[in-house]
Specification:
The complex is a heterodimer of chains A (171) and B (348). Chain A is mainly α. Helices cover 69% and strands 0% of the residues of chain A. The longest helix of chain A has 23 residues, at 13-35. Chain B has 2 domains: 51-219, Jelly Rolls; 238-325. The chains are: A mainly alpha (171), B alpha+beta (348).
């Protein structure tokens, strides 16, 4: 277990902030892609780190801290989505922030932005499975457990997401 | 070329593009500030945080929001008259412009780039599209996030009073601790310096959500929220102080069985909404005890069994909820319509 994690577990907020700086890029990318909305991604990323702070005591170092944090963030997003399942329409964000900002590794290529926008426009269920399977590398059984669906449904949603993306990108 | 082969080829092309997506995306610069403010109230070992008492929030001073003694004491004749008024004012309603708009103000305030801040002595009345009005109290800072299809603002600190007349789930207020979802209502909401909040509903009902958990706060009830915690359990305006204090300990301070025992001991018929929420916030013997106490004041309706409730079967809980005094389901249609029209016209 890293020294930063150990210090954060002892209540050291400076150490936790360093952990935040190290991992926020990936967590925010995950939240943004799962939520498909910058405003929601902002709140979800904050929720994920606050929850990580609260649950640091349960992290035993059996896995990488990044893996633990990542799964926790997925759970926060999916729990929020379940609670908000009744909201069928996505919020049209009119915040000051653009939907996507420049990536930490450089600027967006136009085709990359098209793909991000196409992913954001997917139906929530299909988007979640696509992001978790094709981008984050979870398998269908893991996704089924996280999302609360059958593995077969996960596969069906993946096919649906890929089909919708192909159609969107070919337009 | 077979269809399957073509589909596989297209999938490969798509996945090749997916591989080019960045693993990291730079978040907004001020994201950490919001997290840090919540960490101070949510240490790894929760239980030491306490909100200021409700009296310190100054809700009663909020303009035009002194809660009515009996919100649903509207007689059928009045309800019919109000419904007739609906047609008369429809044109006025439709004539209002969409989006956020400052309808009135007193004293200096700043509004730039979607951020609104009032001084210690100023107030702003904000029109929420065509669906209602938000009164922004002195010393408040908020952000206007979205205007369609839903209206959404972020209350960072201070207090607002909202009067909304629209179908449910069109008006959202984010706070550092929870999201308040309008279900057709009038309410006051205040956020303190640490991000904790207190909501007091005077007409209709509001849903508070965070971490996938929720509280439904009907009229003449309030609820606390605290960063890092699920929304607090709603409590009646007429609940005893000892019940409120015990509920706060149970929700936010790890009060456990001792706090719950005090809540159950102090509970009266007016507290059935509180008890209903506690069913899902307890387990095992504690849940059975909550069930027994709730059943004393509001026996479960026909078709709802003890076993269903203890298993937290959604349908059974919903039926019981609809039968509870004070829940939306107990209002006849004309009272529900009267409440909605009254809120719209701002006469309650």
């Amino acid at each position: 277990m890293s020294e930063l994690v150990r210090l954060a577990q002892q209540g050291d907020q400076n150490a936790f902030e360093q952990l935040y700086r190290l991992h926020v890029g990936r967590v925010y990318a995950l939240c943004l892609r799962l939520a498909g909305d910058a405003t929601e991604a902002r709140a979800l990323t904050q929720d994920a780190f606050v929850r990580a702070w609260e649950r640091l005591g349960t992290f035993r170092g059996d896995s990488e801290f990044s893996s633990w944090l990542h799964r926790l963030a997925v759970n926060v997003v999916l729990a929020d989505r379940r609670a908000a399942a009744r909201r069928e329409r996505r919020v049209a964000s009119e915040s000051d922030e653009p939907a996507y900002q420049l990536g930490a590794t450089g600027g967006w290529a136009p085709e990359r932005l098209d793909l991000e926008q196409a992913i954001a426009a997917l139906p929530p269920g299909a988007r979640a499975v696509f992001v978790l399977y094709d981008i984050e590398g979870y398998n269908h059984h893991e996704i089924a457990q996280l999302v609360g669906i059958a593995p077969g449904t996960s596969k069906a949603q993946l096919h649906r997401a890929r089909r919708l993306l192909r159609e969107a990108l070919e337009r | 070329m077979s269809l399957a082969w073509r589909r596989k080829r297209l999938d490969e092309q798509l996945l090749a593009r997916v591989q080019t997506l960045p693993r990291e995306i730079r978040p907004p610069e001020d994201l950490w500030d919001g997290i840090a403010s919540r960490l101070s109230a949510a240490p790894p070992v929760p239980g030491s945080v306490r909100l200021a008492p409700a009296a310190a929030w100054g809700f009663q001073r909020l303009a035009g929001l002194a809660p009515p003694e009996r919100t649903w004491g509207v007689r059928p004749a009045l309800a019919a008259a109000l419904l007739l008024c609906l047609a008369g004012v429809l044109w006025l309603h439709l004539a209002r412009p969409a989006g956020w708009r400052v309808a009135a103000s007193s004293g200096p305030y700043t509004l730039a780039a979607g951020r609104l801040e009032t001084s210690a002595a100023s107030r702003v009345q904000l029109a929420v599209g065509r669906i209602g009005v938000v009164s922004v109290e002195p010393g408040t800072r908020l952000r206007l996030l979205a205007t369609r299809p839903e209206h959404r603002l972020l209350l960072e600190r201070g207090a607002i009073a909202a009067r909304i007349s629209a179908p449910p789930r069109l008006f959202y207020v984010e706070t550092p601790a929870a999201t308040a979802v309008d279900l057709g209502c009038q309410y006051a909401l205040a956020v303190d310096a640490r991000g904790g909040s207190l909501i007091h509903v005077t007409v209709g009902w509001v849903e508070l959500t965070r971490f996938g958990e929720r509280s439904v706060v009907p009229f003449n009830m309030s609820a606390y929220t605290l960063p890092g915690f699920a929304p607090g359990t709603p409590f009646s305006d007429r609940a005893s102080d000892s019940l409120k204090e015990a509920l706060h300990r149970f929700d936010f301070e790890g009060g456990g069985e001792a706090a719950l025992a005090t809540v159950l001991k102090q509970a009266k018929e007016r507290d059935v909404i509180t008890l209903w929420h506690l069913l899902a916030r307890t387990e095992g013997l504690a849940r059975r005890t909550v069930y027994q106490r709730l059943a004393v004041f509001a026996p479960p309706p026909d078709g709802v069994t003890r076993e269903q409730v203890l298993r937290l079967e959604r349908g059974a809980l919903r039926i019981w909820w609809d039968a509870l005094p004070g829940s939306p389901g107990t209002l006849p249609w004309w009272q529900r319509a009267a409440v909605r029209v009254s809120a719209w016209l701002g006469i309650l």
